[in-house]
Amino acid sequence: MTTPLLLAFALMLVLEGAMPFIAPAAWRETFRRLIQFSDGQIRFVGLTSMLIGLALILILS
Fold first, then answer.
1. How far apart are the first and last CA of the chain?
2. Statement: the pTM of the whole predicted model exceeds 0.90
3. Which of helix, strand or coil describes residue 37?
4. What is the pLDDT of residue 21?
5. 3-class DSSP state for residue 48?
6. Per-residue CA distances from 57 to 10, 12, 24 (Å)
């Protein structure tokens, strides 16, 4: 179980690092906009991301 978990973590790091590497100005602007969100909006985005990820895991496994 450890190896697939580490591979998933490594893939997440690659995907998370792609945007600042390819388009740093757009990445910076995205975070400028995120700072203006309320806590509830940020929590909603986080919850939505987790639910989509969970659904993908259930569909693909």
1. 14
2. no
3. coil
4. 96
5. helix
6. 16, 14, 29
